Amino acid sequence: MSVKIGNIDLGEFPLLLAPMEDVSDPPFRALCKKNGADVMFTEFISSEGLIRDATKSVQKLDIFEYERPIAIQIFGHDIESMKESTRICEKANPDFIDINYGCPVKKVTCKGAGSGILKDIPKMVSMTREIVKSTNLPVTVKTRLGWDDESKHIVDVAERLQDVGIQAISIHGRTRKQMYKGEADWSLIADVKNNQRMNIPVFGNGDVDSPEMAKHKRDTYGIDGIMVGRAAIGYPWIFNEIKHYLKTNELLAKPTMSQRIALCREHLEFSLRWKGPILGVVETRRHYTNYFKHIPDFKEYRMRLVTATQAEDLFQILDEVEQIFGDYQFQ
Prior knowledge:
nine-stranded parallel β-sheet; 2 domains; TIM Barrel; about 10% strand; alpha/beta; 14 helices
């Protein structure tokens, strides 16, 4: 049965690309979409930045037709600012608006934004209600289990957010205090899904780094879809690998070195077009380590890839990598 956010059909058991700051930009999203991701989210965007017309925030509103369905994700601590930024986002014509109640970074949470709002659930509910009222687009939420182990009230919180009008919820199976440490607890995500009062899609997030893990989460916890984050960085193939495994119970062959280099080039070329010759080089660096993980004797080339300042040098290094490591077999 198809999963829907409002009237938006996401297909059966959709795979969502998690919104990740400085990662989920248009070049990266394009590669993930091409390799099987069903739903896109922008990097999270500061509501205050949008209202001030800050260049970095406004640039994050760039979305493309081939990415649909796509959400613009916003964060902030002031309800009026969040309402105003929602109206600004609406003009960019996304398919829905997503509220970030999950970011654990201190500079966000210390102001009561991101997962910082998990210390003030009444405000979280009020803010969500006002955002829903301020737009005709569907509104969704991404959040965590709670602030810490003593405040994992996600079953009640999800129900209250549904009652004020959200149309889907994505839950990272950790508390804010855990950050990204320890194991994600999906049992509470399942409790939200199995709450008889819940009738909106519930997506699980946290620790899905292989097709086998995705199948385990689906079969064990009964969620409506899975959000993949860090495992997709430098490895957008994971979405098609998961889809294939869920359908056939068989693993796809790992991408070859030539396929990895081709995708790396495509990523760099898109980044250069979108961000220009300086940022286009700098902001793809974080991906190189992941594209070429687990290759022995690769340290010298990895260092050159992450320190090169000219696009021409990067393309030349990739040529060298293909010549030297082209026959490497990935397990």
